[in-house]
UniProtKB/TrEMBL annotation:
One of its GO terms (biological process) is retrograde vesicle-mediated transport, Golgi to endoplasmic reticulum. Residues 305-314 have a biased composition (Acidic residues). The gene is LOC120276298. InterPro entries: Rhomboid-like_sf (IPR035952), TMEM115/Pdh1/Rbl19 (IPR013861). The lineage of its organism: Eukaryota, Viridiplantae, Streptophyta, Embryophyta, Tracheophyta. It comes from Dioscorea cayennensis subsp. rotundata. It holds the Pfam family DUF1751. This is Rhomboid-like protein 19. Keywords: Membrane, Transmembrane, Transmembrane helix. It is a multi-pass membrane protein. The chain crosses the membrane at residues 28-52, 72-90, 102-124, 130-149, 169-186, 192-210. Gene3D superfamilies: Rhomboid-like. Residues 258-287, 295-314 are annotated as: Disordered.
Length: 314
């Protein structure tokens, strides 16, 4: 009887890791897997679903569909796993509606940027491969999720390959460096680089300036900890900050006279959520949510073990 109970406990403990996935993420995962299966049955589907710059007009819908269409088994596996596990963290904090809106906006803006870049490269280099290479994949949004993790819990330490511990704030930069390095060794990874770069950048633009906070009804995250230069090491920030300030003036509407962001003060007093305190609270909520999730999983595992103890003693 002891053997039967202990053998039952192990699968329950392991199953905690693979439980708690949201319905929205499961549905999107079905779309990703279904698109790959469709490609295997009908290879010509890539012509209509992937982003082919020369055919985007009149196939304008591929600016949307390309982001949910994976062309390789490895790609669909990474995208599905990443969506399910990161969605467990971000969707409860943002809400399902905002989470879905983030995915749609980042995917669409990334596709537009990739399309414009491909057209520009064609006119510069006159190589038709820029116009007719099918480009698709969820990795733009997947990379954008890392920006959300950086915003919520930048100081959280994560294990990279179960060996190296890194802070969450460096995840976007690490992914960019890995993708660029991989492009020098495999030609298949070259089209992924602009998608990852624009995915990260568009995610930052959206979260920095446009995401509405339900608790304050304000837009964006003006904290210094989420500035553009915060994605880079300290020694590069003095060079990048003057460039990044141009975006602040353009998108935040900074007043040259007062130096304060318009729309974030009322009668000379800052509105709730527009100062670094609100940013600190957001990070604390993110860290607390992660701790509560880990504690709940540990409690669930220990509770299941505790319920079986009397059976083992009998």
């Amino acid at each position: 009887m002891m053997n039967s109970s202990s053998s039952q406990h192990q699968p329950l403990g392991v199953s905690n890791l693979f439980s708690g996935f949201t319905r929205l993420c499961k549905g999107l995962s079905v779309i990703l897997v279904g698109g790959y299966v469709l490609l295997q049955i009908f290879p010509s589907a890539a012509t209509y679903l992937a982003l082919i710059p020369a055919r985007t007009i009149p196939f304008v819908w591929n600016l949307i569909t390309s982001g949910y269409f994976e062309q390789s088994l490895l790609g669909v596996a990474i995208s599905t796993i990443g969506l399910l596990f990161v969605g467990k963290l971000l969707e409860p904090l943002w809400g399902s509606k905002e989470f879905l809106k983030f995915i749609f906006v980042v995917n669409f803006l990334t596709s537009i940027c990739v399309f414009v870049t491909a057209i520009a490269l064609y006119y510069i280099k006159r190589e038709e491969s820029y116009l007719y290479t099918p480009i698709s994949g969820f990795h733009g949004v997947l990379s954008g999720f890392l920006v959300g993790i950086k915003q919520i819990m930048p100081d959280q330490e994560l294990s990279l390959f179960f060996i190296i511990k890194i802070r969450a704030m460096w995840l976007p930069l690490i992914v960019v460096l890995i993708s660029i390095a991989a492009s020098f060794f495999t030609t298949d990874s070259v089209p992924h680089v602009p998608i990852i770069l624009f995915g990260i950048y568009m995610s930052w633009i959206y979260l920095r300036y446009f995401q509405r906070k339900p608790e304050t009804n304000l837009k964006g995250d003006p904290s210094d900890e989420f500035s553009f230069s915060s994605f880079f090491p300290e020694f590069l920030r003095p060079v990048l900050e003057p460039i990044a300030s141009l975006f602040d003036r353009l998108l935040c509407g900074r007043s040259e006279a007062s130096g304060e962001p318009r729309g974030q003060t009322l009668g000379g007093a800052p509105l709730p959520g527009s100062d670094p305190i609100e940013a600190s609270r957001r990070r604390q909520r993110g860290a607390r949510a992660l701790e509560e999730r880990l504690a709940a999983e540990k409690l669930s595992a220990s509770g299941e073990s505790g319920e079986e103890m009397p059976l083992e003693s009998v």
